[in-house]
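To whoever is on call:

I kicked off a structure prediction for a single chain this morning and the downstream step that reads the tokens threw a length-mismatch warning. I double-checked the sequence; it's 517 residues and nothing unusual in it as far as I can see. Pasting both halves so you can look.
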Amino acid sequence: MSIIDEKFLELERRLEEADQAGGPDKIAKHHKAGKMTARERVLQLVDQGSFEEIDKFVAHRCTDFGMDKTHIPGEGVVTGFGRINGRGVYVYAQDFTVFGGSLSFTHAQKMCKVMDLAYRNGLPLIGINDSGGARIQEGVESLGGYGEVFYRNVRASGVVPQISVIMGPCAGGAVYSPAVTDFIFMTEKTSYMFITGPQVIKQVTSEDIDSESLGGARVHGRVSGVCHFHFPTEAETIERVRELHSFIPDSNREKVPLVISNDSPDRVVTELDAVIPDNSRKPYDMKKIIVPTLDDQKFFEVHAHYARNLITGFGRLNGATIGIVANQPNWMAGCLDIEASVKCARFVRFCDSFNIPIWTLLDVPGYLPGTQQEHGGIIKHGAKILYAYAEATVPKVTLITRKAYGGAYVVMSSKHLRADINLAYPTAEIAVMGPEGAIQILFRKEIQEAEDPVARRSELIREYIDRFASPYRAAELGFIDQVIYPRDTRIKLIKAFAQLENKADEKPRRKHGNIPL
């Protein structure tokens, strides 16, 4: 055998060793738990044959606690470049079968390398988290590794999209990297996130709780709002990551991706004329307006199970991605509360960071009243909405379908916060407050002194509705650009966004604003 052949065999041996990760037994255990290995996840995420692995042979440099005798293939993380539907992405995937996927300084360096490549090349970063946390044997070095990752997450924020996929444990300091990224996916029953685990909580507070109840996918998707998406299986989770990727640009330097559709831009949606109920107090599903309007009636909802009084998500109009924000009259009458405010502001700021035009739909009676909201900080949290919309320079088109009352009207992408095109249905009610409340304040004495207080109150309410609780007073003042038939919603939106495609809006010279956090 020649020297060259020996070197080839050595390479083959090393490649095979790295591919085996933690070995057949640990891989089998992983599969039995319904989990893929790190490489299997990456290969399912990216297009077939597109993955190019980086740093496959990296090894740790720790010599304490017998680590000098411990070999960890690939340092417990798979990193590299691939493509999703032909578009480039950088990926890292922690491998729990290799030393519990624990993060050492060299493990972190591998992650940081692909993060730097994503940043420099203007491509999205997708991180798959499945790790037991910091490698205790390294002490402060592993903690320093986390710091290096966090720094890059922050530096890349608003420059390239960052997606975190939680497919196992993610605890302690490890949770802060996903928390800084744009979107978090979790797999139900096999993934969890928390700062302190059940054992520590029991020692400190005597509270007995398991990992799933403390930080499982449903908890973070429905209660805390930390997680944007959660799905039953890893395969479905990965497929949804690919779907999200199809809507977003590669970086803040790029325009939104275009997808060819046979859905006519001149399609009239006649069923929209019957969506708004005659009774203004009766709820309806705002998605019955959103979904039929979009290309191929396809809506990709974000944060579907959290703050359900507000809808956020992505769709397409005439092939181009738009972000959608809408009140949901079917849930809490579409009121704005603390959770909805944070959800809205975060989504609007993502869209603005990555040049995604925003369509806002209003049917909002106001901010949710109550001591719980006031003491919880609805003032500062509610202000996040107005800050996000006022700051956003992407094309903004607003549609008022029914109620638009008080401060909630102003903050939800009104003309006063520089929305570009403001539309309204004939059913729109734009006023300081609802007719019943306004009349009670304005004419309380007159109603009390009337011969028939009930009849007089009803008469005054009708007069108020005709004069103020309609779109026409706002249209007279130029606050509404057009009052449209619901059936023409799709046509009007496509034309509105088309005329705004070259919008340029200079921001004031400053380091950054100070959003109320």
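Update from on-call: the warning came from a stale cache, not from the record. Cleared it. Sanity check on the structure: The first strand starts at residue 52 and ends at 54.
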